[in-house]
Write a structure and sequence with these properties.
Layout lengths: L1 H5 L7 E6 L1 H5 L3 H11 L2 E8 L3 H7 L9 H8 L4 E7 L3 H9 L12 H5 L8 E3 L3 H11 L13 H4 L3
Antiparallel strand pairs: 1-3, 1-4, 2-3
The protein binds inosine-5'-diphosphate and magnesium ion (MG).
């Protein structure tokens, strides 16, 4: 039942994943989502939008003083993005491993950036880098009502219950 599932430490951890404009243009949304689905993580929020600059400036608040910041905002507003919330045990840390190094030249083959991108300025995907960061980013991009609490019928095949 629900209570035994919520009893597994960290099973309800959530992270923010976004397919950036280059990923959408290159029709990578399905392949990227499939990697998270096949891993066993659970989708709890999903939307496509043209990101407002104000939202992006909050999302990337820590990078405001970086030399690449203006071109980063230009890139991120160049077309629609797909923003998602994925849930599961250790999802923040595991997603970062699935996504790979920020610089695709350093990203391992088999990671999303390693397999689908070449240059740091067009690295197809965003993933939150900490549990605290994920909470902040999820609140920024989603209203509470847009996030769906649900339990996968395969739960006991993915976790020991
Ligand atoms: P992350 O996306 O792996 O967490 P961050 O350091 O948080 O990496 O940087 C956010 C995004 O800013 C990167 O994904 C990339 O799109 C862009 N970025 C970071 N460093 C550079 C750079 O040196 N040149 C151009 N773009 C960069
Ligand atoms: Mg980051």
């Amino acid at each position: 039942g629900f209570s035994s599932i919520s009893g597994i430490p960290g099973v309800r951890e959530r992270t923010l994943i976004a397919v950036k404009p280059d990923g959408v243009q290159r029709h990578l949304v399905g392949q990227i989502m499939q990697r998270f689905e096949l891993k066993g993580f659970q989708l709890v929020g999903l939307k496509m939008l043209q990101a407002p600059e104000e939202l992006l400036s909050q999302h990337y608040q820590d990078l405001r003083r970086k030399p690449f910041y203006p071109s980063l905002l230009q890139y991120m507003t160049s077309g629609p993005i797909v923003v998602m919330v994925w849930e599961g045990h250790n999802v923040v840390r595991t997603s970062r491993i699935m996504v790979g190094d920020t610089n695709p030249a350093e990203a391992q083959a088999g990671t999303i950036r390693g397999d689908f991108s070449i240059h740091i300025s067009r690295n197809v995907i965003h993933a939150s880098d900490s549990v605290e960061g994920a909470k902040r980013e999820i609140q920024l991009w989603f209203h509470g009502k847009e996030l769906i609490d649900w339990t996968c019928c395969n739960h006991s095949s993915i976790y020991q219950v």
